[in-house]
Amino acid sequence: MFGKKEKPVEKKIISGQTYGQERALYSLRDTVVRSCTFDGAEDGESALKEARGVDVLDCLFALRYPLWHTEDFTLASSEMKETCRAPLWYSKNGVISNCKIDGVKCLRECDAITVRQCGIVSPEFGWRCRDVKIYDSDVDSQYFMFESRNVTMDHTHMVGKYSFQYIENMTIENSDLDTKDAFWHTKNVTVRNSVIKGEYLGWYSDGLTLIGCKIIGTQPLCYCNNLTLINCEMEDTDLSFEYSDVRAEIIGNIMSVKNPASGSIVADSIGEIILENSVRELNCKITTR
Description:
Elements: E1 12-15, E2 18-19, E3 29-34, E4 37-38, E5 52-57, E6 60-61, E7 67-68, E8 71-76, E9 79-80, E10 88-89, E11 92-97, E12 100-101, E13 107-108, E14 111-116, E15 119-121, E16 130-135, E17 138-142, E18 149-154, E19 157-161, E20 168-173, E21 176-180, E22 187-192, E23 195-197, E24 206-211, E25 214-216, E26 227-235, E27 245-258, E28 262-274, E29 283-288
């Protein structure tokens, strides 16, 4: 005997309303919120706090903290204005799609969030989150995804500074990253078929793997442990690999290599190999094809 299938929940509908008061739709359950505006002279916060099973569609948010402690939600085709600060914190099991997000500190301490086809301008986006997936999106952020775990990105263009610091278990594919000081202190991060432009890439990382990537910028990949580069290109990368444990296969030229600690580096050509004034024992094999 098979158990009876549970009937899908029939959701209520709220449409075309404007809410400005504090906790306007607090603890809302199993509801479609469509074409609503969260703004007004009341300047109320936390409009959809503690909501469960809500679909928020084609809405405008201009007030603070609207989706805190929200679970099993969809946010689609909506806009969060710059005044919508810290809009999603402590939330879980959500899908955000086709949204324009301008609020600072948009995602924090969240679990199991998928972001698709969004335009995001949000300093401090994605801090201390877990199980986040970002696809086909444009992101402008500082300290993007700080201290997060189990993150996936694909076909994403990212601009900012100090991104991906202290991240653990991350995969990035087919993306364009223009970001200074990226991947510092990361653990178990793999980047495939992407362009990474920025100064001081990947310092103090452990288990950073770059496959088929183009790396652009000064002093990359220093003080790294278990660093791997496979079929990568390097452009304007002077003073690379200082005190790193590295295994690198580079297509083309490396501008300069300085005091790599251990492992091996192979490239078509290397402009300058600097092995001097080291404070560590150096046991890295450096060869050109």
